[in-house]
Structure formats: C-alpha cells, structure tokens
Write a structure and sequence with these properties.
Structural class of chain B: mainly beta
Largest interface: A-B, 21 and 21 residues
Strand order of the largest sheet of chain A: 25-26-28-29-27
Number of strands of chain A: 32
Keywords (chain B): Glycosidase, Hydrolase, Signal
InterPro entries (chain B): GH28_Enzymes (IPR051801), Glyco_hydro_28 (IPR000743), PbH1 (IPR006626), Pectin_lyas_fold (IPR012334), Pectin_lyase_fold/virulence (IPR011050)
Largest sheet of chain B: 5 strands, parallel, barrel
Radius of gyration of chain B: 24 Å
Distance between the termini of chain B: 71 Å
Strand content of chain B: over 45%
Family (chain B): Belongs to the glycosyl hydrolase 28 family.
Number of domains of chain B: 2
Strand content of chain A: over 45%
Radius of gyration of chain A: 25 Å
Number of strands of chain B: 33
Helix content of chain B: under 10%
Strand order of the largest sheet of chain B: 25-26-28-29-27
Helix content of chain A: under 10%
Protein name (chain B): Glycosyl hydrolase family 28
Oligomer: heterodimer
Structural class of chain A: mainly beta
GO molecular function (chain B): polygalacturonase activity
Shape of chain B: globular
Distance between the termini of chain A: 72 Å
C-alpha cells in the first residue's frame, strides 16, 4: 500500500520533470538546415510557440541554420546538437538594434538556455566587412574611428538583459563581429563548458557580465581578441555580486579576467578560482574601479598565468561619475606567472595594438590607487613569477627620487600600460594601504637596472618571506612617502 | 533677355524633376539577385533610405529577388526592369499580418509606385501549401474551411491602404496565394498596363479596389482564379468614386468585373469602357449592392464578353448592415456576348466550383432586386448576345404561373447562380423599375422551353428594337405583376 503510494508520487514527479522539458525539432517549424535559407522568422515563431506552449527545448540537429536577430523567450532553451551551427546572416540589415545590436536577444525573460555541443557562428569578419561597405557607401551613419564600425553597428552573439535563471552550456561561440556575449542585470546565470573562439574582428570580448548576480562561469575555454571574462557595472545603483569564475582557460589580446572598464556601481563577493590565462597581451587579472564604483571582497585563488604582458593590475581612478571609487579586501593566493620579453599574443587574430614608443617591460604586479581612492586591504600570498627583465636605463628611466614624474592620470582609460615606464620590474604600488605580501617569489631573467619593488605612498603594509632572484640586486624595496611598512 | 528667362525656368524645372526621380540600384543596398538570399531587411532598408532622402526609384535589374513582407514608403517607386522578379518567400513566417498578410504593404503613404516590365511572383501555390503544413501541425490556428487556409493567413501580393498618388504600371503579378492586389481607401490611383497571372490557388482576385477615389484602371490583362477587377466598399461612410476601368482584357473563374460582395458604403461615378471578358465562369459584369450601400451612376460601354457563364448580373439585397441597399442609374451600351453550354473556365487553374445539382443555363441578363430595394433606371442599349439555350423542361422547371417559387434570398451571398433554375434564357428581371431596353438582339442556339424575357414586379419600363431568334418561340416577354411596360 505504502509502496504503491511512493510509485505514484515518483511517476507524478517524473511527469512534472518531463512536462518542463518538451523537445521540439527545428525541422518541425520548417527551419531549414541548408545554410542558405534565412530562418529568422521561423526560428522566432518556434521560440514564441514553445514559450506559449509551456516551454521546452528547440533542438537543432546537424546542419547550418542561417538566421538574423532572434529573441529567446521564457521557458525556451535552444539546444544545438553536435554538428549543428546557428549561423549569423552576413547581411547587417538582418540584425536588430535594441540598446546594442545582437544575434540572440533576451530581455526580461526567465528560465532560458542555450545548450548542446553545437556552434553559434556569427560570421563576424564578413558581417563587419559588409558593415564597412555600407558605411563607406554612406548608407549607415557611423563615427567609423580607426576604420572600424562602432560597436553599436556590429552585432554581438548574445545580449541577455534583465533575465533570470539562464543556463548556457557546452556551446562553441565563434566569430562574433563584436563582443561575444553580454549578460546585463541578469540573475542566476550559469555559463559552463563553453568554448569561445573569437578572434575575427575588433572588440571581441569572450564573456561580458554586467551588473549580474549569482553567476557561475566554469570550465570554459576562451580565445578572444578583446577581454576574456569581463565584469562591468554600467548602473551606479547596481553591481556584479556573488560570482564564481572557476576552472576556465583564457587567451586574449587584452586582459584575461577584468573588472571594468565601466565600473559605476560595483563588484563584490567574487571568487576567481583555478583559472589559467595564457598568451595574453595585457593583464592576467585587471581589477579597475575608475567610475566611482567599488570593488570589494574578491578572492583569487589558484591562478596560472603563462606568457602574459602583466600578471595583476589593480586600479582606482576617477573617470566617470560622482563620488569616489573604492577598492578593498582583495585576496590573491597561489599564483604562478611568467612575463615574457616578446609580445605574448603575437600571431593571434586581431592582436593587441603595439604601443607608439618602445619601452621597458611593465612590472609583474601593479597596484595603482589615486590619492582620493586609496586601494586598501589587499592580500597577496604564495605568488611565484618570473619576469623577462632586461630593463635598459638608456632606453627610458624614471629616477627613484623623482617618482612624482609618474603621472596620476585619474581620468585616463585604465590599463597596465597607461603609465608607460615604471621604476620596478616586480611590484609597483602607489596610493595603497593595508597590503599583506607573503610567500612572494620573483625572478628577473635578464639583467635589469630597476628595483624589484617600489612603494610610493603606501601605508601600514607587510612583506613576509620575500624571495627575489635578480642579477646584481642591491636593494629589494624602495619606499617613498610610505609609513608602517614591515618586512618579516 | 526673355529667352534667357525661359531657359533658366526650364533648367529649374528639370532640376526639380530629377530631384524626385533619383534612381538607386538594388545592388547598392546589398540586395541579392540570386533567388536564395532572403532580402526582406535589405529591401526595407533601401525603401526607408530612399524615402528619407527625398524619394526615388529602387531599380531591380535582371534577377530573382527573394523577400518577405516589405513596406513601401512615400516617394518611393519599386521599379522592376524586364527580367527582374520580386519573389515572395516560401516561408509563411516571412510575411507580416496587418489585418491581412501581404508581400508589399503601404499604409498612409503618398506618391508611391510599382513600375517596370518585371514580375512580382508570390510563389503562392507553394506558400499556401506551407501554410497548410503549419495548420495541420497545429502551429497556425485557422478555420481551415474546405481545407483552405483562410485568406488572412495567405499573403496577397500588394496591400495598399490610405495611400495617395499611387502608380502601378507595366508589372506582371503572378502566383499570389490569395488576392493579388488590394487598394483600400486610396486616392489618385493609376493602374496601367499590368498583367495578372493568378490561377495557382483559391480566392485569387485580379485587382481589388476598396473605397478608393479617382482611380484609372487601364490597358491591363488579367487572368485570375477569382474575380478579375473587383470594387468593394468595406466602410459604410466611404465609397468607390470616380473610377475609370477601360481597355482591359479579363479572364476569371468568378466574375470579370464586379462591384461587391462587400458593399457597405457605395459605388458612384464609375465608367467601364471597352473591356473584354472571356472564358469566365460567372458574370462578365456583376453589380451587387447587398450590404446597405448604393450603386449609382455607372456607365458600361463597349463590352465584349466571350464565353462567359453570364453576361450581366445586377443585384440588390440585404445581407449585412442597416438601411436599404440602392441601385440607380446604370447605363449599359454596346455589348456583345455569348453564353456557352459548357463550363467556360474549364481547364484553367482553380476552376470555379461546379454546382451540386445540374441545371439549365442561367439567363444572360439577370436584374434581381428585392422588394425593399427596387433596382431603378437601368438602360441597356445595343446589346447583342447568343445563348447556348438547350433548356430542358424535364430537367427542371419553374412554371411561369408560379414565379413566387423563385426565392427572394435577400441575405444570401449574391451570384448569378444563386436562384438556380430561372424561367427565361435571355433576360430575367425582378423588382425593378425604369428599365430601358433598346437595340437588344438575342439568339438562342439550341431548342429551349423557356421564354426569352421574364419580368416579375417590373414597373415603368420600355423595350424597343427587340430582336429575338429562338426555335419554336411562342412569345417574347412574359410579365407578372408589372405595370407600365412599353413595347415599341
């Protein structure tokens, strides 16, 4: 009797589970896999139909499915089987522009997803070229700086805004004409086991999370022409909160994992665990609070940085907005890195731009506050890195007694290279307090005239078990305007 | 001096002209001629662009231009060169539905046109099949009466509403899935030298003119599965006014030139000159005021009706709406016709439906009013026709002394065949007054038991110069409940 009851309950549960997971084949809606028929309206009809019928998965089996902009709706998952490619139209006119242009939109939807081992291919190189053609004919108005159409004229692959319960898994994103995927003010977002192969044009971030809460980005492989995983805060009243970024492998011609540049609201409770960043032009990790927002309670643990232009770049500034930017309570542990002499992203598509003037390599770790927004409470523990060194005093030189020559530039676009020449090869810190360095092991490969560590206006900080390997090393730490620095 | 002034004036005038006649090649806008690229959004962009830039022609050169619904905008003409085909998508979802579905829409625009010797091809047969496919899958909701998708779910080729200064010239319209072209509440409309080839599905009217004013419909060739040129009045406060229909050649599996069925407002000041109607299943001319509207001041001159099921069908009724329908002052002159024994549209695509019961051939001229809406002041002058005759008394018979057996059917869908068996072969008139027949010459080819002319409740009418040829004829005219009938 009791047993029967359980079976009944079990059956009911199974039914409930399957009720929410009804599968619909794309072909059922007349969606054509040949790669030539533009399926925009059929795919949209399918999404609308499935959403209105209680939700389910729209399954794309092997084939190329050409489409322009579509809108994902509540309860619907696009499932791309291995061998299925959702192919972005080459025609710029086939894309809608909401706030931005995109291939797949979702606004104010919940319980949506994109899954499967298939590919979403934006054909971005050719879309961008077609946009350029339209601009040059005068048909599309565009500022057209540097011979590039502005981001607003190039479709990204995904633009989800104010959505809840989003699941993106397994998909390969390829060849966007702009940023790859932007999640804006979304909640309960899982991005897992995604591959991003996005080096077909400029500004191709891998993943952009804007003011999102409760996010997991895990097990992804990202190769992006612009920032790899980029957290932003566009809205001063909102923030990126409760985010886990773990087990990802990232290659970029900008920064591996970045907070900013837009940083109006904030970033808090973010864990960045066991990631690998390689062959990356700028920083493996760049945390930037420059638009009067805050960055706080960040944990970075287990980072492998291979062949990157910079390891860690922390920056406050005053670029946009009212009030003061803030950065505090950052914990960075268990990091290995090497900073090479050669350009780390050489030969990848859409390489990071060379600087106008050649200069000595930037320090491995840079903590760059501004006087009115001191960076505070940063722990760096068990960090090991090699730096190519080779700093040449004839090439350029910022004398240690003239650190004031290094400009503050609080309103400038932040980036590890923004100060150009710096007088340290290992660690450069300015306008910071309550730093705790422990178990730092750093090696300078080629002869370098610079100091390993320079502190300028750094207060109440500690260095413990510092191991430095540099030919002809005279002094480990140079201090200026600093107080309460202890070396243990 | 004076001469110089004129030259200057002329130059200014020329400049003015060219300003509004700028030509844009479709290819400029990335519109593809390969027949597989869906150009909807590019064509729309081109139209919007040209409209926003002072107007001009969007010129399509030889090729097949696939598209879904587009919206024509003020001052834009789509010009299809000979060999250019604007090809409707096979996908029902590529069409918008604005009340009705259409390939080319225009709402509230002025100075628009469709010109050139090219083709607009709706691929309607396949489109309709795809609609059926979606209906049978349950994806599109449809009444699906007689296994036909309702007209709203099948795209017509052109739907212009509340537009002014419309020119349609030269274009061939082919294979619509529904009506070919509907002009609704338009003003200053010129349709000239077009060709309609539309026999691939049901309900394929050739040209529908709804509540339009100042229209010229000339020099066109129409082959349509449904009514050829059809004037309608959907709005009780509006009317079809000041319309010239001349020099057209029409073939239809319904009526050649028809007013109605929807006749809520009215039809006034309409000239129908020198047209040919052939191989047409129903009436060469059908004027129907059945929805409380009026038909008045209509001139039909120079009509050649070859192999049609009926020559002239005039009908008042009370189907929809409040008030009384009205028909007054109709002048019909210089007409030749033949009414065959066989189905006139046999072998054409989407033939008119056979009647359930076989019956004798309807009279050539039917004037069928209702008691509360007596048809008045109709002149028939110089009308000459042959009728196949062959009426068989064993087959069916409405005795002349029981004319009341012929039903009034005021609310029934009007059509020359609505009364089924009638007791004359030449002319049947009921509930009419002020009819003037002169120079009527009619011949019954095969032996027929019926009277040539039957008048039932006809008042104050004259017959002059009546020539009737019929084997075994006993009398020319049978009168019932008539007064003031004058035979000269």
């Amino acid at each position: 009797m009791k047993f029967k009851k359980y079976i009944l309950i079990a059956l009911l549960l199974i039914e409930c589970a399957t009720a929410g997971a009804k599968d619909y084949k794309a072909s059922f809606f007349g969606i054509q896999p040949g790669g030539q028929v533009l399926n925009t309206k059929s795919i949209q009809f399918a999404i609308d139909h499935i959403s209105a019928s209680g939700g389910g998965r729209l399954i794309f089996e092997t084939g190329k499915y050409l489409s322009g902009s579509i809108y994902l709706k509540s309860g619907v998952t696009l499932h791309l089987e291995e061998g299925a490619t959702l192919l972005g139209s080459l025609n710029p006119m086939d894309y809608d522009k909401k706030i931005w242009m995109a291939f797949i939109f979702a606004y104010n939807q919940q319980n949506i997803g994109i899954t499967g081992k298939g590919t979403i291919d934006g054909q971005g190189k050719y879309v961008a070229r077609n946009v350029v053609e339209m601009i040059e004919k005068g048909l599309i108005k565009d500022s057209y700086k540097y011979g590039r159409p502005s981001e607003g004229s190039r479709p990204m692959m995904l633009n989800f805004r104010e959505c809840k319960d989003i699941f993106v898994q397994g998909i390969t994103f390829r060849n966007s004409a702009c940023w790859n995927q932007t999640y804006d003010q979304c909640k309960n977002l899982v991005i897992d086991s995604v591959i991003v192969d996005n080096v077909a044009y400029w500004n191709e971030d891998g993943v952009d999370l804007v003011d999102c809460e409760d996010v997991r980005v895990t097990n992804c492989y990202i190769d992006a022409a612009d920032d790899g995983i980029c957290l932003k805060s566009h809205d001063a009243t909102k923030a990126c909160k409760n985010i886990l970024i773990s087990n990802n492998k990232i290659r970029t011609s900008a920064n591996g994992i970045k907070f900013g540049t837009a940083s109006r609201g904030g970033f808090s409770n973010i864990r960045i665990l066991n990631n690998v960043v390689f062959d990356t032009y700028r920083s493996a990790i760049a945390l930037e609070a420059v638009d009067c927002g805050y960055i706080e309670n960040i944990e970075i643990d287990g980072l492998v940085s291979q062949n990157t232009g910079n390891l860690i770049f922390l920056r406050t500034g005053k670029r946009w907005g009212e009030g003061k930017s803030r950065m505090e309570n950052i914990r960075i542990r268990n990091v290995t890195a090497d900073i090479p002499a050669a350009k780390p992203d050489a030969a990848y598509g859409y390489e990071g731009p060379e600087e106008d003037q050649p200069r000595n390599l930037s320090p491995g770790i840079m903590i760059m506050g501004i006087p009115e927004a001191m960076i505070s409470g940063v722990i760096l523990e068990n960090i090991t890195f090699r730096h190519a060194g080779g700093g040449n005093i004839h090439y350029a030189n910022v004398p240690l007694q003239q650190l004031n020559l290094i400009p503050e530039i609080p309103a400038k676009y932040p980036d590890f290279s923004m100060f150009k020449e710096l007088p340290a090869w290992g660690i450069f810190v300015r306008h910071a307090k309550n730093l705790q360095f422990s178990g730092i092991s750093m090696e300078c490969e080629k002869n370098d005239f610079r100091m390993p560590i320079v502190l300028d206006n750094v207060q109440q900080s500690q260095f413990k078990t510092l191991k430095i390997k540099q030919e002809g090393l005279k002094k480990e730490i140079y201090q200026n305007r600093s107080k309460g620095i202890t070396l243990l | 001096m004076n001469m110089k002034k004129y030259v200057l004036l002329l130059l200014i005038c020329l400049q003015g002209l060219t300003l509004f006649a700028k030509d844009y090649k479709a290819s400029t806008f990335g519109i593809h001629s390969d027949g597989t690229t869906l150009n909807t959004r590019s064509i729309q962009f081109a139209i919007d662009y040209i409209s926003a830039n002072g107007g001009g022609r969007l010129v399509f050169y030889v090729g097949r231009y696939l598209t879904g619904s587009v919206y024509l905008k003020s001052n834009v003409t789509l010009h299809l060169e000979e060999g250019a085909v604007l090809l409707g998508s096979l996908n029902p979802f590529d069409y918008d539905r604005k009340g009705f579905s259409a390939l080319v829409f225009a709402f509230n625009q002025q100075n628009i046109g469709l010109t050139g010797l090219g083709i607009i091809d709706g691929q309607g047969k396949y489109l309709a099949r795809n609609v059926i496919d979606q209906i049978e899958k349950g994806l599109i909701k449809d009444a699906y009466t007689h296994s036909r998708p309702s007209a709203e779910n099948r795209a017509m080729l052109v739907n212009f509403r509340e537009c002014k200064e419309v020119t349609v010239r030269g274009v061939t319209f082919r294979n619509s899935a529904s009506w070919t072209q509907t002009y609704d509440q338009c003003k200053n409309l010129t349709i000239d030298s077009i060709r309609v080839d539309n026999t691939v599905y049901w309900n394929e009217d050739g040209v529908d003119i709804v509540d339009c004013e100042d229209v010229k419909m000339t020099n066109s060739y129409i082959d349509a599965a449904d009514d050829g040129i059809c004037l309608k009045s959907h709005d009780a406060t509006k009317a079809c006014k000041n319309i010239l229909i001349s020099n057209n050649k029409i073939r239809s599996s319904a009526n050649g030139i028809k007013f109605g069925t929807v006749s809520a407002g009215g039809f006034v000041n309409i000239k129908i000159l020198n047209n040919v109607v052939f191989d047409t299943y129903r009436s060469a001319i059908a004027l129907e005021a059945v929805d409380g509207g009026y038909i008045e001041n209509v001139e039909i001159d120079g009509l050649q009706s070859i192999n049609t099921g009926n020559l002239i069908f005039l009908r008042t009724g009370k189907r929809w709406g409040e008030g009384k329908s009205r028909m007054n002052n109709i002048r019909i002159s210089n007409v030749t016709a033949d009414i065959p024994a066989k189905k006139p549209d046999a072998g054409y695509g989407y033939e008119g439906p056979e009647e359930d019961e076989p019956r004798n051939i309807s009279p050539a001229i039917i004037v069928a009013g209702i008691p509360e809406s007596v048809i008045s002041n109709v002149s028939f002058k110089n009308i000459s026709f042959r009728h196949a005759g062959g009426g068989n008394i064993q087959y069916a018979n409405v005795p002349l002394d029981k004319l009341e057996l012929i039903p009034e059917l005021p609310a029934k869908y009007p059509d020359f065949s609505m009364f089924k068996e009638l007791p004359s072969w030449g002319i049947f008139a009921k509930h009419a007054k002020g009819l003037q027949f002169s120079g009527i010459s009619m011949e019954c080819e095969r032996k027929d038991f019926r009277v040539p002319v039957v008048l039932d409740d006809v008042q104050e009418s004259t017959f002059s110069g009546l020539k009737i040829k019929q084997a075994g004829k006993k009398k020319d005219i049978h009168q019932n409940n008539t007064k003031g009938i004058l035979l000269k």
